[in-house]
Amino acid sequence: MTNYPRDEFDRVPEFNTRVGSHHAHGWAQSAAAKSAGGSLRWVIIAAVSVLIIGAISFFVFNQQPASPTATEPTATTTASEETSSSPTPSETEEPSPSFSIDESEVLYGQRVGIYNASGIRGSAGTAQEQLVEEGFTNLRTGDWSRLETESAVYYASNAYEMTAQKTAAALGIEAVLQTSNIPDRISIVIGSDVTEEQ
């Protein structure tokens, strides 16, 4: 037995629960690390799953149905513009070859558009002169966008029917039709049939 002086390491209590420092990093720490790592792994998996489900839901349920193409309103023309297309008369309306005209309902001051669709220069002007002789005072002329073989008088509503009938009678036009697809309340399209008779 040696005679070295006693130090702190020689004064170890008889009953001590302390374990060596190597035990603190042994199985207890390993078990704690495994437990924490396992929990973290499940948290990451759950988060990724939520993100994937959210992305799928966004793309699948957030798609809007294709909206139908809206029909464009019919544009009216000014005195310097050509009429874009022929009007589409109401299917219920039929030409009225014989019509009793009530003169008290004829609007001689109503603006009436006269459009040349015959391809012959001056046809609209000739029709304008005939209507002036009948007493109409608010007339304008222009060119139709395409040639027409048959002349027609179009009116926008029932309020202008008698006036349209009067202009048709003055010009010898049989087709008088109601439609909203016209540039004026009353629009007269002069076709080649009228110019052939002149």
Per CATH, what is the topology of the domain at 103-197? Alpha-Beta Plaits
- Give the strand order, joined by hyphens, for the main sheet: 2-1-5-3-4
Q: What percent of residues adopt helix (DSSP H or I)?
A: 25-40%
Distance, first to last CA: 151 Å
The global form is rod-shaped
The amount of beta strand, in percent, is 5-15%
Low-confidence stretches: 64-84, 89-97
- Largest sheet geometry: 5 strands, mixed
SS elements, strand count:
5
Report what the structure shows.
The protein is an alpha/beta fold and 198 residues long. Among the domains are: 26-59; 103-197, Alpha-Beta Plaits. Helices cover 34% and strands 11% of the residues. A five-stranded mixed β-sheet has the order 2-1-5-3-4. The termini are far apart. Residues 64-84 and 89-97 have low confidence and may be disordered.
Topology readout:
Layout: H1 21-24, H2 27-61, E1 112-116, H3 123-134, E2 139-143, E3 152-155, H4 161-171, E4 176-178, E5 186-190, H5 192-197
Parallel strand pairs: 1-2, 1-5, 3-4
Antiparallel strand pairs: 3-5
